[in-house]
Amino acid sequence: MRKFIIAGTIVMSFFTSTVFAAERLSLGYIYSASKSHSEIIEFTNNSVNVVSPTCFDITTRGRLDINGMLDQEFINEMHSKNIKVTPFLSNHWGRKRAQAALKNPYPLIEDLVTAINDYNLDGVNVDLENLDSKDKNSLTEFMRLLREALPSDKTLSIAVAPNPKRLTTTWVAAYDYKALAEYVDYMVVMTYDEHCYGGAAGPVAGINFVEESIKVILEEVSRDKIVMGIPLYGRFWQEGEDMGGEAIVIANVPRIIKKYRLVPRYSLEEQTPYVKLEVDQDETGPYINGRELGPGVYNIWYENENSIKAKLALVNKYNLLGAGLWALDNEDADFWTYYKDALNETPYESEKEIKIRERMEYAKKFAVVEELPEIEAMSPLEVQYIEVATPILECETEAEEEEIVKVNVLVYEVILPFEKKNKSIKIKRFYIDENNELKATMENLYYDTTYVRAVSTKALLVV
């Protein structure tokens, strides 16, 4: 609030502002879980604003199969909590199913649009994996057609594989980042499985792997469209075995550490914890994935508070749209004591919002309050001032392609108690020219026998 004086009377000048800072997008996938969807979301302590349950499958013919996980009551409940529901469409690693859908996309697209409208869903997250690199163009075309068919208020997102090594073959090369960005609201980059089943032991998502994956996609996609994936699972390998890397949910690891009195270690280079478990011949091993681990030495790489926070620091460092968790119900209760705050360590601003803020800051250098000429033979007690909150003066100019910036001024009406004909005051209109510089023009504003407008020239930029 700012004050200035006209003819000895104080007039209050209120300047509106746009709040740009906001919480980041916080997406939680629900896959296989031991609790109901409602219980899972309740457990998150208001830390998730988008939920993607596994409701949409693909048949062998490439059509939509709505499984029994889709629940209208759950959708309504989430909406009452301002949480968006965007189920993910999955081929569950089935290449032929996905390829059948991409070869003839129209039936699946029609099925999806119908389901989204019928169930009042907020959109869909497309999660087609294990494709061939040759499917790149057909996947992009599918997303283009789906975007055209979906109502404009429905969200379209896609899960994409990370490609820090810029591979041109294998399934990670099936995602044309730049082309897909034209049709989706955001991409969930699956920045995990750096070390996976069948491969060498190591972290699921080492910090260098995650950051390099983000850097690569940022070369072609706006950070406003990037959601960084975070794993809520680890993997373990048995020494001496040819195959390893089974998944283990991170909630189970602290229990194993406590039961077997293990001493976990933390790799500073990878920013990831790991622990070695030795099961003796006469000892009962822990149950993981429904089976008991037999005697042997196991190396478990997992995630904890430090490693999760290190990844969330990258979301803040690159000011990404948000984070996506794979998958809910794999975490322990402590996770929700720090996750939301760490995700929003710095306020999120979109690129567009940053441009507006920078222009507003630039405009403050020129923002002044015009001194109005004194009105003859008037004392402060003879004049009443009525505040008008609506900005009624504005001008427009093209600041850049396809963007119009308006510069508004706040206007106040002054009621005169007696006639004062042929009077005028000077006003100043601010605008931004084609060189993105703030300019001003002076004009005379005439008033009649009843009203005069006193103008504050504080510049406000709105898009």
Distance between the termini: 22 Å
Q: Counting H and I runs of at least 4 residues, what is the number of helices?
A: 11
How many β-strand runs? 26
Biggest sheet descriptor: 11 strands, mixed
Structure in a nutshell:
With 463 residues, the chain is of the alpha/beta class. It has 11 helices and 26 strands. It has helices spanning 37-43, 72-80, 95-103, 105-118, 136-149, 177-181, 207-218, 253-259, 305-317, 335-343, 351-364, and strands at 2-6, 9-13, 25-30, 50-53, 56-58, 64-66, 84-85, 88-90, 123-127, 155-160, 186-189, 226-231, 233-238, 246-249, 265-267, 272-279, 287-288, 291-292, 296-301, 322-326, 384-386, 393-400, 403-415, 423-432, 438-447, 451-462.
Topology diagram in text:
Blueprint: E1 2-6, E2 9-13, E3 25-30, H1 37-43, E4 50-53, E5 56-58, E6 64-66, H2 72-80, E7 84-85, E8 88-90, H3 95-103, H4 105-118, E9 123-127, H5 136-149, E10 155-160, H6 177-181, E11 186-189, H7 207-218, E12 226-231, E13 233-238, E14 246-249, H8 253-259, E15 265-267, E16 272-279, E17 287-288, E18 291-292, E19 296-301, H9 305-317, E20 322-326, H10 335-343, H11 351-364, E21 384-386, E22 393-400, E23 403-415, E24 423-432, E25 438-447, E26 451-462
Parallel strand pairs: 3-4, 3-20, 4-7, 5-8, 8-9, 9-10, 10-11, 11-12, 12-20
Antiparallel strand pairs: 1-2, 5-6, 13-14, 13-19, 15-16, 16-19, 17-18, 21-23, 22-23, 23-26, 24-25
Helix pairs in contact: 3-4, 4-5, 9-10
